[in-house]
């Protein structure tokens, strides 16, 4: 099966980490009788030859040898090789390599043979390969239908059902018979798991054929399935990338996948998805509840709506005896920020019962704030303050504590003395100085604790003059001085030094304006920065905006900047033009274009519109439309990016505030 492998000039081919000279060893490892060696080989294929879905010249060279491995029944675990080939051929289409897709498609007859292989793992992997790469829709449908009638392995039947669903979506002109087959599988005598699979595939590809009362039907079938489910599959022991990923999967991976398919099909139907989550989270089976907790995160991150009931039910899981369920609930709640408020009572109860959860100590690396305390504080609940005070009084303070305190607002004021003390203990000139000081600075800035000015100035005076982590440290320290306002007069000499030709000039000018209110002292500096490079223009515009009419000398430069090809610069310049000149006409077109071009500008624009009042009325339709949109404005498919939740909630509050003034 490896004939000709040594004739390939692997050394001249490339993969993610350079020369592909190691690829023959990986291919031979896939055929090893040793499970650990096979795991390492498959790990290597995904980790280098097909790294993050990319296709290299070495990937193409592997395809013929992978097909030869599939043809040998004595090769164990060939299902994993089928999945690898499917990924190479399918991913490469999006990556621009049609050659890889063509190479896998050329071997599609092999997948036809594998559909009836003696190994159920191979039969399970074959249906998606058939649908994707055999360019004969009628034949593919016939093969799937024939296999369904003879297959006895439940997991293979599920794969065949999902193959039918994929067929419906990829071949709509030939889908009628496939839809009929799926519809037939939603009723007895098929078992609950297969019926769930069929409903999920219909919901994705033929939503008009799903059963009536979809959510209630899915919840009922889930509970029927759970009553008869055996324990989860054994976890592989090998310490490989693939092995670790498999160990992290839910103990009922199949059930998780079935319900996730339904959630995906429901998409932005938030009420239906919340009702489905409620059914999952009230299941008698803790495994079903754990699966629900994990998949709830995607809903909360991507879609707006009234999430109070499912969040409260996730909070109830904190009382569970099962560690995995409780830890899943903590993990999700800690990423919800203010949306976690309905679970605050349960979070507080957990912390009271188990104070050791205030801090999480890792086997390697510095400790971090414990998930329950982080979730409670991020939700804005003042009951987190005593627990945070206890952490601050301990021997080691997690570096992320300061970032959490900012969400408590004025309620965190009693923590200021301890934060001050900790900031004064941060070692100077250390590689860790910025990492340890910046979170504390953000907390003291949020509290406007001007009594910490000596500790802040200590950092400013000792900050390095070269680019690096010190840039962040100096910038954060200047923002903190800025927040102290006139109470920070002792900082004036340091601020004036930083005005003189340093890369912190704009930030120092803003802080000096906040402290002294002397436009004559800072305007020349900011005008110079406005004419500088792109890296400083945007900050200069934002600082000029704070001066208001006193910065009228900057209007010409800001008008030029408002025509920039960079949307962030245009937005900052337009905000400054309004705050300085008070003219809406040149500003509104910039805002409208930026709102559509880059969603991340919307918070800044809404903030400016809130100041404009009736002058911003021509753009109020954008705010009205935003409030009717069910999707979070910066959401990515799949609900990635938990930190987008507070940004989106802030945008919604500002939109409502502007329109409430009508």
The whole-number mean of residue pLDDT values reads 92
The structural class is: mainly alpha
Strand content: under 5%
Terminal Cα separation, in Å?
75 Å
**Arrangement of strands in the largest sheet:** 1-2
Rg is 30 Å
> Which blocks of ≥5 consecutive residues have pLDDT under 50?
231-239, 241-250
Q: Helical amount among residues, as a percent range?
A: 55-70%
Q: Based on CA inertia axes, which overall geometry fits?
A: globular
Characterize the main sheet.
2 strands, antiparallel
What is the number of beta strands? 4
Number of helices: 36
Features:
662 residues; 64% helix; mainly alpha
Describe the structure in your own words.
It is globular, with a radius of gyration of 30 Å. A hairpin with a 2-residue loop joins strand 1 (14-15) and strand 2 (18-19). With 662 residues, the chain is an all-alpha fold. Strands 1-2 form a two-stranded antiparallel sheet. It has a two-stranded antiparallel ribbon with strand order 3-4. The chain has helices at 23-29, 35-49, 57-70, 78-95, 98-106, 108-114, 120-133, 137-150, 154-170, 176-184, 192-205, 214-228, 241-248, 253-266, 270-281, 286-302, 308-316, 323-333, 344-353, 371-378, 384-392, 401-405, 416-425, 433-446, 453-462, 469-484, 492-499, 505-516, 519-530, 534-547, 555-561, 567-581, 588-597, 602-612, 620-628, 644-660; strands at residues 14-15, 18-19, 359-360, 368-369. The longest helix is centred in the first third of the chain and has 18 residues, at 78-95. It is built from 36 helices and 4 strands. Among the domains are: 1-135; 584-662, no CATH class. The termini are far apart.
């Amino acid at each position: 099966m490896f004939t000709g492998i040594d004739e390939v000039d692997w050394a001249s081919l490339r993969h993610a980490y350079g020369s592909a000279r190691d690829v023959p060893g990986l291919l031979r490892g896939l055929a090893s009788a040793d499970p650990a060696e096979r795991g390492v080989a498959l790990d290597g294929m995904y980790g280098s030859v097909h790294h993050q879905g990319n296709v290299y010249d070495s990937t193409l060279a592997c395809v013929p040898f992978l097909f030869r491995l599939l043809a040998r029944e004595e090769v164990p675990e060939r299902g994993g090789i089928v999945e690898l080939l499917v990924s190479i051929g399918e991913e490469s289409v999006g990556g621009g390599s049609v050659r890889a897709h063509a190479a896998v498609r050329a071997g599609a007859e092999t997948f036809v043979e594998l559909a009836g292989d003696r190994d159920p793992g191979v039969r399970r992997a074959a249906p998606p390969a058939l649908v994707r790469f055999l360019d004969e829709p009628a034949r593919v449908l016939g093969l799937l239908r024939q296999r369904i009638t003879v297959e006895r392995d439940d997991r293979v039947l599920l794969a065949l059902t999902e193959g039918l669903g994929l067929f419906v979506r990829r071949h709509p002109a030939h889908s009628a018979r496939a839809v009929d087959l799926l519809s037939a599988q939603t009723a007895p005598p098929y078992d609950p798991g297969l019926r769930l699979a069929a409903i999920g595939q219909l919901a994705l590809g033929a939503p008009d054929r799903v059963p009536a009362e979809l959510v209630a039907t899915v919840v009922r079938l889930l509970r029927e399935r759970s009553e008869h489910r055996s324990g989860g599959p054994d976890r592989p022991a090998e310490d490989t990338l693939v092995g670790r990923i498999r160990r992290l999967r839910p103990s009922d991976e199949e059930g998780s996948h079935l319900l996730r398919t339904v959630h995906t099909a429901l998409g932005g139907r938030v009420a239906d998805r919340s009702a489905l989550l409620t059914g999952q989270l009230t299941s008698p089976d803790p495994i079903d509840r754990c699966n629900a907790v994990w998949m709830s995160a995607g809903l909360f991150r991507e879609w707006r709506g009234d999430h109070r009931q499912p969040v409260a039910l996730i909070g109830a899981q904190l009382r569970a005896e099962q560690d995995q369920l409780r830890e899943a609930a903590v993990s999700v709640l800690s990423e919800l920020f203010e949306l976690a408020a309905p679970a605050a009572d349960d979070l507080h109860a957990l912390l009271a019962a188990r104070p050791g959860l205030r801090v999480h100590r890792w086997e390697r690396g510095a400790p971090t704030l414990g998930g329950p305390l982080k979730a409670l504080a991020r939700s804005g609940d003042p009951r987190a303050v005593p627990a945070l005070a206890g952490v601050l009084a301990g021997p080691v303070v997690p570096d992320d504590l300061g970032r959490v305190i900012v969400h408590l607002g004025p309620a965190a004021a009693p923590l200021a003395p301890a934060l001050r003390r900790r900031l004064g203990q941060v070692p100077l000139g250390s590689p860790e100085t910025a990492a340890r000081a910046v979170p504390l600075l953000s907390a003291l800035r949020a509290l406007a604790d001007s009594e910490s000015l000596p500790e802040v100035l200590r950092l400013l005076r000792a900050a390095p003059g070269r680019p690096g982590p010190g840039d962040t440290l100096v910038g954060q320290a200047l923002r903190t001085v800025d927040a102290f306002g006139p109470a920070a007069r002792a900082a004036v000499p340091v601020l004036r030094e930083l005005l003189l030709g340093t890369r912190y000039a704009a930030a120092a000018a803003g802080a000096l304006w906040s402290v002294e209110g002397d436009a004559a002292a800072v305007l020349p500096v900011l005008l110079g920065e406005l004419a500088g490079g792109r890296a400083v223009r945007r900050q200069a515009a934002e600082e000029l905006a704070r001066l208001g009419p006193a910065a009228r000398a900057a209007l010409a430069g800001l008008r030029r900047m408002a025509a920039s090809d960079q949307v962030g610069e245009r937005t900052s310049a337009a905000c400054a033009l309004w705050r300085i000149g008070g003219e809406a006409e040149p500003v509104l077109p910039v805002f409208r274009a930026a709102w559509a071009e880059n969603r991340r500008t919307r918070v800044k624009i809404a903030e400016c519109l809130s100041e404009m009042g009736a002058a911003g009325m021509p753009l109020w339709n954008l705010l009205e439309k935003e409030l009717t949109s069910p999707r979070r404005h910066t959401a990515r498919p799949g609900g990635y990016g938990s930190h987008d939740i507070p940004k989106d909630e802030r945008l919604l509050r500002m939109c409502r505030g502007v329109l409430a003034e009508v």
